[in-house]
Amino acid sequence: WLDDQPGYLPPVQLGEVIRAAGIGEVIETRCDAYAVGDIVTTLTGFQEYTIVRDDLFTTPVPGPVDQVDQLAVMSIYGPTGATAYFGMTGIGRPQQGETVVVSAAAGATGSVAGQIAKIAGARVVGIAGGPHKCRAVVEDFGFDACIDYRQDGLAAALKKECPRGVDVYFDNVGGPILDAVLGRLAHKARVVLCGVISSYLTGEHPGPANYVNLLAKTALMQGFNALDEWGRFDEAFAALRGWEEQGLLTHREHISDGIESCVDALNGLFTGANIGKTLVRLAGS
Description:
Strands 6-5-4-7-8-9 form a six-stranded parallel beta sheet, sandwiched between helices. A three-stranded antiparallel beta sheet has the order 1-2-3. A two-stranded parallel sheet has the order 10-11. By secondary structure, it is of the alpha/beta class. It has helices at residues 70-75, 79-92, 108-119, 131-139, 154-161, 175-182, 212-216, 233-245, 262-271, and strands at 21-25, 39-43, 59-61, 99-103, 123-128, 145-148, 166-171, 185-193, 220-223, 253-257, 277-281. The chain contains nine helices and eleven strands.
């Protein structure tokens, strides 16, 4: 929605507020479902105050304001967690003993998706950029291994870490990394298309040369949008909360302060500055 190409939401027009999910406190309401003081998640945008519809991606957060773990809500119990949940459980469907590969594994969605695959009993290999991110993927998020795409020869590293092939690939980046993993698919593999951050800035989407492997391995490659499952978000959050309470799911945040830091925070997603969920904390929050 940052360019004029059709997508799951209309493009942001010149002069409009940049979209962003957020958590906030209701200070005035004309909706019977919400009271002043309630905590909600919604599409707040890059702004300190916003007027929203109660039926447009707005969800109440249970619990007193002083007891709400706002970081967990934004990292897990929001669109990020729902995206990881529906993509991995609905399309990836990892099984005990299978090999799962996740790109952008140090990011908000990738880190949760990989942990869900671990909970299912799979061997999980992350792909990330830089040794510090790879350490976080293994040490903080519990992946079995992580490939540094900036240093390691990707094809050789995939062969080493996935000797029997890749059963599930959760793709957040597209481009050459997607192509490399397609060349390593196992029989009946499932490829989950979640994002193409490698080409968001360039606008170029080179086709994968190894797509023929989908035919050779009778594999499935499917895109999805978690918002299509809006009516099932409670199911996702219940599962994610249960795993977190059992100590099976963890989260990290990359936090900047002040509304003026929003642009730099957004740019950091494309330069690889973040580990975990990128958040902007407003004054008084």
